[in-house]
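Final paragraph of the annual report: two paired records, presented back to back.
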Amino acid sequence: MNADLRPFSLPLSDPFETARGTIERRDGFLLRLEADSGDPADGDRPDASVGVGEATPLPGWTEHHDECEAALRNAAETINREADSEPDADAPLADLGETPAARHALDLALADLRASREGVPLYRHLGASNRVETVPVNATVGDAGAEETLEEAKRAANAGFECLKVKVGARPVSADVERIEAVSDALPGIELRADANGAWTRTQAQQFLDAMGDKLSYVEQPVPATDLASLAALSGPVALDETLAAVALEDALDADPHAVVLKPMALGGPRKAVELAEQAREADVLPVVTTTVDGAVARTAAVHVAAAIPEHAACGLATATMLESDLGPDIAPVADGRAVVPQGDGNGTADTWGYHD
């Protein structure tokens, strides 16, 4: 097996703010693996010998860009050094535990290659037993006054979205309650979620949950990521997002959440994301797949991850429009509130290696 690495830089359509500052571009790496042709006698397709993975680090969720690059270069050197032998292809993953974005690239490239050899879509390789044509996705409604929030929500509903995630936490709790109530009253058939990004105290979060009643499916990350005591004490449906970047899933589940938000890029790859989704289901917790505003390779893989999870919840996968340019064509487009699941072999993005938008 041989490995090649290529950097990329994707400008965003509009900058967005994070706790660590403004982000204007998504910089990362594509990892391409090329293996000897498979053996048809083993059911492999002899021409399916390429897998492509993506690492798009986002500090706060993953390692920094330079740490990601160093980890990927070390992994590629290891793979290339042993190219003429028959090493365990998964072995380099063990050295990437502290660099989840780099691990995501290798894990995805391996899964893409293997699914292609099997002649199945990636989601089937990840464990789905049935064909899945589409998965539901949510629209995100940004912070604004009640009137502007309602108008944005109506536009999303008119575009076919049946689930909306409303950003909260930047205004007084009473103002956010007013915003959600305006949307709930005007669009009674729409599933509503709120996302506070850890902005509230326990008291504020409980005030919001009490005011919302059954108008919300859940509020995402109402208090800071590591405040597990407050998360466990809250009465009402809560989803954990940033917490999963701070603690292990089993510790997060002790807070008895309603849902967990799974970002394959931050978790170390599509196979890890599916594994954690299964653990969440076993604990009767809803897994929701989303991205870290990734390029087409990782975003498509996240769609496959969502398709591999039974009883698909609406996922945060409608992020392609956040990029001004991309790694390749969008083969998992969103229409009428659903993302198309590619049915070709593997992830379906191997040709992005030579693509220029």
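The closing record of the year follows.
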Amino acid sequence: MTAPFILFGMFGFFLLIGAPIVVALGASALTVYLAAGDDFVSLVQIAWNAVDSFPIMALPAFILSGALMQCAGISKRLVHIAEVLAGPMAGGLGFSAILASMFFGAISGSGPATTAAVGMLMIPAMVDRGYSKSYSAALTASSGGLGVVIPPSIPMVIYGVTASESITKLFLAGILPGVLLAMGLMIGNYLISKKKGYASGETHAPGTLGKACKDGIWAIMAPVVILGGIYSGLFTPTEAAVVSVFYTLFVGIFIHKELSWKGLKESLNSTTWLTGRVLIIMFAATAFGRILVENDIPSMIAQSLLEVTGSLTLIWIIVIAFLIFVGMFMETLATIMIVTPVLLPVMVSLGVDPIHFGIVLVCCCEIGFSTPPLGENMFISSSIAKVSIEEITVKALPFVVIQLFVVMLIAFVPGISLWIPELFGY
């Protein structure tokens, strides 16, 4: 038990002194390896093995695709279509923001990217129509998390690699949960908007939807090409990510003619930075997780849970509460890579399907995007709306509660996650 004691002790120490999570993970793992007298080269081998995977190649491609879509005019067309669909109903623009997050999430695979793309367009529009700044930012932050549940999804790719599960099957399994989470947010937005008197304030002339769809047909086709290609077996998720980049370049340069050299350079810069950040997190989290597995921590946790209760329902409640708590303080990718080798064997031993567990895990991480102190989406929407995190937190609480109930439903009813994969023969 010396290694886990040193690992958690050093991890806690680095967090207390304010070190970034990736430094805390890497430094604590390095300390354990050095204390055990292991060769430093073994850490380098872990780093290599963590990223030496064909599916990992999808990450930079999906990140680049999401960045390019903002510069290629695809994002604003998707948002406009969503706005027209909402019409003058109560909370219409809020509904548009959620719908736009679903559209963009079906392309980018990233929560923060979805929040930034949708928020830049929707938050100012919502404020202009009488929505409070804090509510607009809270709703955008909450709906932005849909980007990691609705396929394609970067966290699902990471889980698939970590758990050695089919990424295509994970993408299929995420469709219904993503739709349910979006519906929950829409219902919450409608009830709050009805009470506050929020409406879109705009009626659209007949034919407006047709005109918006005609103008945005190439934007609508993006998720169709990407997801259709994956689910039909035409190409793998990794190949789909590369196809999405070339599709976006083609549309931005030759169709919309809005993609400039400046936009391309900014997209490449942000992709390089984000990809490097992800790979460093993967290395540190893999080393940390391997130490936990080598010291038999998963079986100890399983035994402890079974001593508390034999009820799978109660165990799910404990696990979800733990995942959401961890998600409040740890980055999503680090959470997935550390928690998966620890909790997955426990849940599988209780009869839970690995794909089902992965979807619940990603959904819990989705909630973490809109909860302080580390909610990335909250910081993005806060900077766009120019309001404090505290103001957003209060307005985001109803949406967090709604999403929590939906996640519980997904956990207790495995068919929500597994029905579509089974339909496709997985």
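Residues 39-423 form one domain. This concludes the annual technical report; the extension proposal builds directly on these records.
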